[in-house]
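Incident log entry.

Two folding requests arrived from the same account within the same minute. Monitoring flagged them as a possible duplicate submission, but the sequences differ. Recording both here for audit purposes.

Request one:
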Amino acid sequence: MRAVVVNRFGGPEVVEVVETDVPEPAAGQVRIKVAAATLNQVDEGVRGGFFGGEGERIGFGWDVAGTVDAIGDGDGDGGGGEWSVGDQVVAMTPGMVRPLGAHAEYVVAAADALAKAPVTVDAVHAATLPLNGLTAVQALDLLELEQGQSLLVTGAAGAVGGYAVQLAAHRGVLVTGLAREGDAELVRSLGAAHFTSGSVENGSFDAVLDAAILGETALATVRDGGAYVGFRPGGQPASVRGVRTTAVEVAADGARLAELVALVDAEVLSLRVAETFPLAEAAKAHARLAEGGVRGRLVLVP
């Protein structure tokens, strides 16, 4: 099969498409024939060597939509739990330094990381949900907000920020989105009650979800005793004024992903695709991501 890898670190030019063996699922795993796989910022970090692995062949891709192709051997149920060959699924397949990821024709995933694919959207759109959707909902869980409380989402037009705006608004949280002025209409359409592209009064929110990684600047907008969640585990600002600070470290969770799928099918969550690329043009997709300013996700199609 074909897979996207790097054998050395650098810019988009180091991205290669290679021929390699089809992976075999072990007990508790399933193999997915990939229909679409999303390119994310974590893949830029892998390509640049941010997570290590010098001298190794490293694969890309955490997000996948496709069809269950094989189920690993196991005790009793065959190791695949509720899954059967032919099921249409989505999954997050995490891993910073590994020889193969979801940017391939086939990928192996833990059976409990899968969810049935949405029925209202195609595979290209479905593939944009797992990583960013799970990150957003797990970050919101850490904030423990109640209906009617106020939340500032920085980077509200981005992939994670956009999901966070939609999910928080659905929970009855009063959301203010912080993004570039040109993104005002988009952010409001996602459910933000208010929008800003400039400075925010300090101490004016019950919590902040800092998808733009503004750090202490974002923390200052939280009222005394509020909450802050960032996206660099261990890199969140120190607590001040009784503000609880933490950072999300996204985890695969098929049951939670299924809840997000249900919200997609209920038209609560919208899935944004900026552009698609054939798997053979993965380097072009990396180059486009490196340019910045992408609204929606870049998706590879084998």
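Request two (distinct sequence, not a duplicate):
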Amino acid sequence: MSTFLTARSVRTTPEGIFWEPSERWVRGRTGDITVVDSRHPVLVWEPGLPVPLYAFPREEIRTDLLRPAKNPRLGTHCGSQIFYDLEIGDELRENAAWTFPADDLADHIAFEWFRRSSRGLDHWYEEEEEIFIHPRDPHKRVDALPSSRHVKVAINGTVVADTHRPVLLFETGLPVRYYVPREDVRLELLVHTDHTSGCPYKGTAEYWSWEGGGADTPPNLVWSYPDPLPAVAAIERLVAFYNEAVDITVDGEVLERPVTPFSSTLAARPSR
């Protein structure tokens, strides 16, 4: 057992990059062209970034489609050494791929992902399942658990949700998210927006904004997954709120507003 654990352990490079081998079969495509077909990918965590990405051995990449970047994005991706443009037919996607300076990863190339960057490949697959935005972190759990806790949500002093049948979503590294049935939410106090976001663990979310005003109420505070991924099917069409910007009371206890990677993003949004 110790040999297996050692083989699967996360390694660290002198540059501060964490990486580990993955046993998943990963493919990346643009249109009907497979650019990456790898059975030996590695997961890479760059310093300061909370989510991983994949890097692939050169022999498992269509390197004939890569060109030295005309305008390399120097200083990004942990001081990467070489950037590549991806050329498919008449289309050129600048800085779609790059290498890392670490000796451990010298023979590997990483790619941008579509929906995370317009430079990336359009579709990614682990085995036969399409994945989005970024690879799922094998050291992270996402659990959606039905509960009977009493949850109330208030925005600027106005109660907008009150339920005894929430679904609690536990996601490693983030505060608990409280998903509330729509029947227990005062949706008439919210306005649906055209904003969407994607999550590799949950799916594609739709959003609402608070229309009651207030200096600390950024838009798109409220979201729902109308068609979540099977692993979190329990949150389907339920409504959640950013703990960072609303007041949530659970079983009579007012929760502190947490500080998370979303806090700065919310603060940067213009108030309604």
